[in-house]
């Protein structure tokens, strides 16, 4: 039973962090959701909810709504992300043992549209004051466990090593071949198959450094850090602000290294190879269809790009489409983020179509518990606003020296196992680079 929460939100002087939010990423245990200079960073833990199973989203939704209805909230800033917030990460599969979780931090620093704020959240008695909140933030920033463990000069003296996870590369390619054979029977149109690799970092994983690197380099992505799950995702499952919901659907990938040596501008090459490919466009169409069909019952109006655009990341190009919906009131309420996630997850971008057939094949062929990989990751506030990405291009820090990285690919009728394997390596690259491992 969590006690009643009390929260205080005050404006924060922008001068204190001229480089924006990433400059607060100084502890390995930081909770993080950032894109460019904006987002939320959390410290400490005032409350936590965990769940497994098919009802994990709705159980979390109920827990959060009870918590915030009871909460005593003083908010001097009032924008999405102020007041009490929870960071969360959910297991991909309803059958996973991995615990889905919502974590309410003790201190939150937020930045949005150039405005910064500080929220203190407590379940204890005692007065909340601006001076107290500033002092608590200072306390978290100064007791920096990452700095105590990692010394830059020794950071790479013992090289990190990599090994395959659940399946060898050959076995994973066999799984892709088996997936293509299933698609050819007509049972399903698309299947997303993932694999894992394990990095051992003898000097210890510096999670704060990983997050800073990802945030600095992958500026189009949302950099996330929740309880050992870290990464930078380019894919937005659902972003809710008031009555407006937005999603960014991706499917269709091209390694930017493939353009090396090609004539002409790299982006023209991407247009030709990605937007000009029947296979890639088909894969993309399936992903858009799945999202819009699931979102429609919650929406009064919806619009999506007619044509996908090319999303340029440092490692890959993607075919991308943004979808925007005006949420409808159902029984007098706009649906919450977690209710929407319950309907949308898993999308065809990370599971396949039809969902049930693809899900069963994933369990049969991957030999992998995806854990939080490809599950929703993000935050929500008391007013129902939130941002939930799909936990891609990420990893789970399993021990101080062990990191498990995940990557997957959409498989359709024309997929080639070798090409899909190469695509997983391109998708591992952001995490490998931020761990200081070259590939
Ligand atoms: C499954 C992943 O990515 C998904 C698969 C894509 C594809 O197959 O083209 C593209 C973006 C994501 O929707 C991953 O990064 O692990």
UniProtKB/TrEMBL annotation:
> Locate the Chorismate-utilising enzyme C-terminal domain: which residues?
169-427
Molecular function per GO: isochorismate synthase activity
Q: Which reaction does it catalyse?
A: chorismate = isochorismate
TM spans, by residue? none
InterPro entries per UniProt: ADC_synthase, Chorismate_C, IsoChor_synthase
Tell me which SUPFAM superfamilies the record gives: ADC synthase
Tell me which UniProt keywords the record has, alphabetically: Isomerase
Q: Which GO terms describe its biological process?
A: salicylic acid biosynthetic process
Cite a single Pfam family from the UniProt record. Answer: Chorismate_bind
EC id: 5.4.4.2
Gene3D superfamilies membership: Anthranilate synthase (3.60.120.10)
Q: Which family does it belong to?
A: Belongs to the isochorismate synthase family.
Name of this protein: isochorismate synthase
Naturally occurring in which organism (per UniProt): Arthrobacter globiformis (strain ATCC 8010 / DSM 20124 / JCM 1332 / NBRC 12137 / NCIMB 8907 / NRRL B-2979 / 168)
Native organism taxonomy: Bacteria, Bacillati, Actinomycetota, Actinomycetes, Micrococcales
């Amino acid at each position: 039973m969590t006690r009643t929460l009390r929260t205080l939100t005050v404006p924060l002087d922008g001068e204190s962090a001229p480089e924006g939010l990433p400059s607060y990423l100084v502890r390995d245990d930081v909770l993080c959701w950032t894109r460019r200079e904006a987002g939320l960073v959390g410290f400490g833990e005032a409350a936590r909810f965990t769940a497994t199973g098919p009802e994990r989203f709705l159980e979390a939704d109920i827990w959060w709504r009870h918590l915030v209805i009871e909460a005593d909230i003083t908010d001097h800033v009032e924008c999405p992300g102020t007041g009490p917030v929870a960071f969360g990460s959910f297991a991909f599969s309803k059958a996973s043992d991995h615990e889905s979780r919502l974590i309410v931090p003790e201190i939150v620093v937020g930045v949005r549209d150039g405005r910064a704020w500080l929220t203190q959240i407590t379940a204890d008695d005692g007065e909340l004051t601006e001076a107290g909140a500033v002092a608590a933030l200072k306390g978290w920033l100064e007791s920096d466990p990452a700095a105590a463990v990692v010394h830059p000069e020794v950071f790479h003296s013992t090289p990190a090593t990599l090994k395959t996870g659940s399946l060898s590369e050959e076995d994973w390619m066999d799984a892709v071949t088996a997936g293509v054979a299933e698609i050819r029977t007509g049972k399903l149109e698309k299947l997303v198959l993932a694999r894992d690799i394990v990095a051992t970092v003898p000097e210890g994983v510096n999670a704060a450094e990983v997050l800073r690197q990802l945030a600095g380099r992958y500026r189009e992505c949302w950099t996330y850090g929740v309880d050992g799950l870290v990464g930078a995702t380019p894919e937005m499952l659902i972003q809710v602000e008031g009555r407006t919901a937005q999603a960014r659907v991706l499917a269709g990938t091209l390694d930017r290294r493939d353009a090396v040596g090609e004539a002409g501008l790299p982006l023209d090459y991407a247009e030709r190879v990605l937007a000009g490919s029947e296979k890639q466009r088909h894969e993309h169409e399936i992903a858009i269809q799945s999202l819009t069909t699931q979102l429609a019952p919650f929406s009064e109006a919806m619009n999506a790009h007619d044509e996908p655009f090319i999303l340029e990341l440092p490692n890959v190009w993607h075919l991308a489409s943004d979808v925007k919906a005006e949420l409808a009131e159902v029984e007098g309420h706009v649906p919450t983020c977690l209710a929407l996630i319950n309907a949308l997850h898993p999308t065809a971008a990370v599971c396949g179509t039809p969902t049930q057939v693809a899900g069963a094949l994933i369990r049969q062929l991957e030999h992998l518990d995806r854990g939080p990989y490809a599950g929703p990751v993000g935050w929500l506030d008391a007013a129902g606003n939130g941002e939930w990405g799909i936990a891609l291009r990420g990893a789970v820090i399993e021990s101080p020296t062990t990191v498990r990285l995940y990557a997957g690919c959409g498989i359709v009728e024309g997929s080639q196992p070798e090409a899909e394997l190469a695509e997983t390596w391109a998708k591992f690259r952001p995490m490998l680079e931020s761990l200081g491992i070259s590939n």
